Amino acid sequence: MPEKNITGTTVEVGEDGFFLHPEQWKEEMAPELAREQGIDPVTDRHWQVIRFMRKQYLEKGEGPSVRVLGKTSGVPIKELYQLFPKGPAKTAAKLAGIPKPRGCI
Fold first, then answer.
1. Under a CB-based contact definition with an 8 Å cutoff, are residues 96 and 83 in contact?
2. pLDDT value of position 102
3. Does residue 102 form part of some domain?
4. In this structure, what CATH number is given to the domain that contains residue 40?
């Protein structure tokens, strides 16, 4: 499996760059991951979504879809696309260190 060095920590990632072991993620990794996605700085609203994604993953075993994210994260879908222009659920999952949500291409 491919490995990636993020803030001095080596993590295993899949071919698409998503963490294979979400327990390897640390909050200090999110800003570096965000810069790779063209997001800088990571704002409080980004953090709200990132933390929501992790919470949902830890509770349910998978990240939420964009529709669920827009309805339950407290951030409307329109704003999600402004915060994560390359795809809210997919990009937020990558920043949160969780696997790609089902339904994401």
1. no
2. 74
3. no
4. 1.10.10.370
pLDDT at 104 over 90: no
Residue 78 lies in a domain: yes
Is residue 61 a part of any domain in this protein?
yes
Overall number of domains in the chain: 1
Tens digits of residue pLDDT in 34-78: 999 999 999 999 999 999 999 999 999 999 999 999 999 999 999
Contact between residue 16 and residue 5 where contact means Cβ atoms under 8 Å apart: no
104 part of the active site: yes
The catalytically annotated residue of 13, 80, 96, 104 is 104
Indicate the pLDDT class of residue 1, thresholds 50, 70 and 90.
Answer: confident
Amino acid code (one letter) for 45:
R
Euclidean distance between CA atoms 98 and 68, whole angstroms = 16
Radius of gyration for the chain, computed over Cα atoms and rounded to the nearest angstrom: 13
